[in-house]
Amino acid sequence: MNSKIGPAVLAVLYFFSVLPFPGCASGKRQTAASPASVQDTFEQREIALGNQIHSQVLSNFYLYTEPRLLEYVSKIGGALAGHAERKKLKYEFTVLVSEKIFATSAPGGHVYITTGFLNFLDNEAQLAGVLGHEIGQLQYRDPRLTDSKKYMDALAAGGAFVGGMFGQIGALAILGLIGMDAITDEKSKEQRVVIADRLALEYMVAENYDPESWLDVLSKMTRLKDQNVAFIFDYYNLRPIFHRRFKQFQKNFGRLPLQDKTLVTRADGFVSATKGVREMYRAPA
Question: How many CA atoms lie less than 13 Å away from 32 in the CB half-sphere?
Answer without folding.
Answer: 0
